[in-house]
Amino acid sequence: MIYEGQICRGPMERSSFMLPVAVGCSYNRCRFCNLFKHLKYRQLPMEQVEEEILRVRALGGDPETVFLGDGNAFGLETGHLLEIAGKIRRSFPSCRSINMDATVTNIRLKSDEELRALAAAGVGHLYLGIESGLDDVLGTMEKDHTLEQAYEQIQRLRAAGLIYDAHIMTGIAGRGRGLENAEATAEFFNRTRPERIINFSLFLIAGTPLYEDAKAGRFFPASELENLEEERRLLQLMEWEGQRVAYDGFHDCITFRVRGRLPGEKEKMLGMLDGAIKVWKEKEPVFAWAERIPDAVILKE
Asked: How far, in Å, CA of 2 to CA of 93, rounded?
């Protein structure tokens, strides 16, 4: 496989066949993100996509799930996605779901009929970068949606038979607002009920607008202790009945991870967070900063 850029996908997709269908992100304006800043967004030719599908099939591959890359593959034109889905289903009879990242705007720009057609073609999980339950934070981070827009479009995608998953970032509201953000985000999730939640706790990366905001005193980052306390409050407040939700939370700066299923494993996860909070209360504050921007790479496998 030839892959241009930095591979980034949710941990629930680790066993999926990752099929590149685009390079970069068509939005590419989130203030915290550097994954695609060095790339010029473009749709990959159908011939290249089909060649990769046939290569994997020739090697005996028959994946149960396929993940379409890159940043927001759901933004591709519906007819193009349907053609890709058809090639996948014909080549891989065991495929049960075709998953990808999406934005709220991607959903808004597709009609109800298009959403239903994509679901019927095998598109399953859509990962949305919800990030925060606070409207002012979404605006500051230049996300492509408001909370009200997110509520509306999630309702549409679920009505069409698509599956909603969420990405969030503890720490994104900044210093002193962790618990406020946790409570607002928990309320959002209690209303929208994602099947999977991935928390990539905020990491300030050199070269991003948010990094420059922090250096200039326009954004004050939360410590990793505050991020842990925010995550604990979020998990504490999320309540579902009759639904199991997969949760995976990463704090790369302090190499801490908590994962499990709600509601059954909530107490276990809260206990893990209590232990980490106790440890970090005894240490000097740590902030997640990275001075170096990773080089653009082309990965071959």
From this structure: 24
